[in-house]
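Q: Is it fine to ask for two folds in a single conversation?
A: Yes, each is treated on its own. Send the first.
Q: Here.
A: Result:
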Amino acid sequence: MENKTTHVMSTSPLYNLIYALVSQIPAGLVTTYGSLARQIGCTARTVGYAMAALPAGHDVPWQRVINSQGKVSPRRNGDGDLIQRQLLEAEGVRFDARGRVDLGRYGWEADGGRTGRKRTEERS
């Protein structure tokens, strides 16, 4: 699969840093708002605000950022959470009966890549 370069430019250098880091998450893996926040030195809420501020037509894989419970965070308006889950499932990410992703299997950390035991080539 082709590795995309982030083409989103924000007036916020912090948001641009968040977008660049999110763009490194491989398809089929996820990370949490908090994990990204620790890597960047901001709050998880700030990461969430940055994801919500993405403009239409961007190429940042926003769907790969979930909450610390391993769940897709509900949205106030629209069906963004349903779309997020569908995009992740299309990448091979599986949800349990409670709507949670196994972060041990599908988790990604910016400081070294994989946290879990699942490998990209094992995906079916």
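Q: Second one now.
A: Result:
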Amino acid sequence: MFKKSLLLIVALLTIGGGTIAAAPVVPAEAATHHLIKWHGKKYRSKYTVKQMRRKFHLKYYKTKDIAHVTWVHNLYTGISKGANVHTGAGSETHAHGAVTHKGRYAMFMTDQLDGGNAYSLEYINLKTGKHYHDQA
């Protein structure tokens, strides 16, 4: 079938003398942005929540430690405006870090279910996809 089509095109070109303009083959592109819905609003993001989990190894799971405290790991807690990240500076408190990054971020939290105030946060910038880890 391909040979017949090729012969037909060559014959038309030699007889008619015209040119056939073939459209360039353009591969399908991946989506340049995605939408994440949170509390009735839609936010544009470079990655979906599922893609963020894969890219930054943020699998959701639960564990119990020696004291029988239940930990929830990498719970998606929503969209945050600004990422308040602890750097270890002396001026920091448990609640507030030293650096606040601007923009909107997807937050993933590791926390104790049975009490306590130890937690860690993973921030992923919706626009750039940059990842920040915060240990409080």
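Q: Anything structural to flag on that second result?
A: Two points. Helices lie at 2-16, 49-55. The CA atoms of residues 25 and 95 lie 54 Å apart.
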